[in-house]
């Protein structure tokens, strides 16, 4: 069997393109009924909203892969190199309009095990630092993801939006607007608002990417054995850069993306 690919043997471009290939495949499979009545939050979500569940699980896995690859490097220069490569992957995702991919990587950078590695972050190049700051500003949740919405509305498809943004909008509409009016008639204004969100998702589902699948890269991205448990990540982080009194981060302050729906 051929040697397994690693973070070192793959280029940032290969990783970004295949992440985009995998994300898009799940994204285009989401059906409109999965987005109704907050189906993705129900007990039977795996049956009612399978692709929403899948995209959420995938989001968490990629995020954990990024953190695992950084923390698998015991030598500081290797850790810096891997962090810089993931930042490059995220920036290529931006060029590919894969906003979901940018968020997967940025959320790994915000994971407390990675975020607290002061010595590692101090060693990254100025260019990488500027790239990371620019991307984190782009995907910031401030003002209901205002920067991300602007970027989405100004980009030409193909594109993979961050689904969490729409799920938040849909929950907001479902919970904040009654389904029936005072006269017990169906509230059409609410239906129109829901339809508007779903139509925007469908608009982005229509344009395919011209990216061919590359098995060796996909195998790397889907390799569950590369994912380290959250506790292990934190212990490694402390091992490489022990706590100082000035900067202590509690293990409980993990900034994870949406709850895992595995």
TrEMBL record:
Matches recorded under InterPro entries: Ras-like_GEF, Ras_G-nucl-exch_fac_CS, Ras_GEF_dom_sf, RASGEF_cat_dom, RASGEF_cat_dom_sf
Keyword RNA-binding: no
Superkingdom, natural source: Eukaryota
Pfam family, one: RasGEF
PROSITE patterns according to UniProt: RASGEF, RASGEF_CAT
The entry's keywords: Guanine-nucleotide releasing factor
Keyword Lipid biosynthesis appears in the UniProt entry: no
SMART domains: RasGEF
A GO-annotated cellular component: plasma membrane
UniProt record, GO biological process: Ras protein signal transduction
A Gene Ontology molecular function term of the record: guanyl-nucleotide exchange factor activity
Ras-GEF domain boundaries: 11-243
Identification of the protein by name: Ras-GEF domain-containing protein
Organism encoding this protein: Darwinula stevensoni
């Amino acid at each position: 069997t051929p040697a397994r690919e690693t973070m070192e043997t793959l280029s940032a471009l290969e990783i970004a393109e295949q992440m985009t290939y995998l994300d898009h495949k799940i994204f285009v499979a989401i059906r409109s009924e999965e987005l109704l009545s907050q189906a993705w939050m129900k007990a039977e979500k795996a049956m009612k909203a399978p692709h929403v569940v899948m995209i959420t699980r995938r989001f968490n896995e990629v995020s954990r892969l990024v953190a695992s690859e950084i923390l698998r490097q015991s030598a500081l220069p290797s850790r810096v190199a891997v962090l810089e490569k993931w930042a490059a992957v995220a920036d290529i995702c931006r060029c590919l309009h894969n906003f979901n991919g940018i968020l997967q990587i940025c959320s790994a950078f915000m994971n407390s095990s990675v975020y607290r590695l002061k010595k590692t972050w101090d060693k990254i190049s100025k260019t990488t630092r500027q790239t990371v700051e620019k991307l984190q500003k782009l995907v910031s949740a401030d003002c209901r993801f205002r920067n991300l919405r602007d970027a989405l509305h100004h980009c030409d498809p193909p594109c993979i939006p961050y689904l969490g943004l729409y799920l938040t909008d849909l929950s907001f509409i479902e919970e904040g607007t009654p389904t029936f009016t005072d006269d017990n008639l169906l509230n059409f204004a609410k239906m129109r608002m829901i339809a508007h969100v779903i139509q925007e998702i469908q608009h982005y589902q229509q344009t395919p990417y011209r990216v061919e699948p590359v098995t060796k890269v996909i195998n790397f991205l889907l390799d569950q054995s590369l994912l380290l448990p959250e506790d292990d990540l934190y212990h490694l982080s402390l091992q490489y850069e022990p706590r100082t009194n000035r900067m202590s981060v509690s293990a409980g302050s993990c900034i994870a993306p949406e709850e895992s729906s595995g």
